[in-house]
């Protein structure tokens, strides 16, 4: 636990402070932190983390990912996604037509 974070929330009610910015990703979440929102730094910017009871015992850094996933693929992946979208549109049209036919 980071003592500086505990000092910031000491005697305060959850939700009254707004976002508490911190760079201490290694600090462990304690029961006193439940209900507060921390802005955890991920190396580029602060990510808002609302602390719940399930998070007690974990580290703040676990909830602010440092790497951004950009999907795999390329030309082939785009073709697969386009086909999936066409199938979804066709299914929606057929469902709409069925609903209008049933209404008549």
Provide a brief overview of the structure.
It contains two helices and three strands, in the order αβββα. It has two domains: 3-63, 2-Layer Sandwich (30s Ribosomal Protein S19, Chain A); 71-99. The protein has helices at 3-9, 75-103, and strands at residues 19-22, 37-41, 46-50.
Question: What overall form do the CA principal axes indicate?
Answer: elongated
Would you tell me the structural class of the helices and strands?
Answer: alpha+beta
The biggest beta sheet reads: 3 strands, mixed
Count of helix runs: 2
CATH architecture of the largest domain: 2-Layer Sandwich
- What would the average pLDDT be, to the nearest integer? 87
Trace the largest sheet across and list its strands: 1-2-3
Which stretches are poorly predicted, pLDDT < 50 over at least 5 residues?
none
Under CATH at level 1, the class of the largest domain stands as Alpha Beta
Give the amount of beta strand, in percent: 5-15%
Oligomeric status: single chain
Query: Could you name the CATH homologous superfamily of the largest domain?
Result: Ribosomal protein S19/S15
How many domains make up the 3D coordinates? 2
Total beta-strand segments: 3
Percent helix range: 25-40%
Q: What is the fold-level CATH name, i.e. the topology of the largest domain?
A: 30s Ribosomal Protein S19, Chain A
């Amino acid at each position: 636990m980071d003592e500086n974070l505990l000092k910031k929330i000491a005697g305060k009610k959850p939700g009254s402070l707004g976002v508490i910015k911190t760079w201490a990703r290694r600090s462990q979440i304690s029961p006193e932190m439940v209900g507060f929102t921390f802005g955890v730094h991920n190396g580029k910017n602060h990510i808002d983390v609302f602390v719940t009871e399930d998070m007690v015992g974990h580290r703040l850094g676990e909830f602010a990912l440092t790497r951004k996933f950009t999907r795999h693929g390329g030309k082939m992946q785009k073709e697969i996604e386009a086909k999936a979208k066409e199938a979804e549109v066709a299914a929606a049209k057929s469902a709409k037509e069925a609903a209008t036919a049933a209404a008549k």
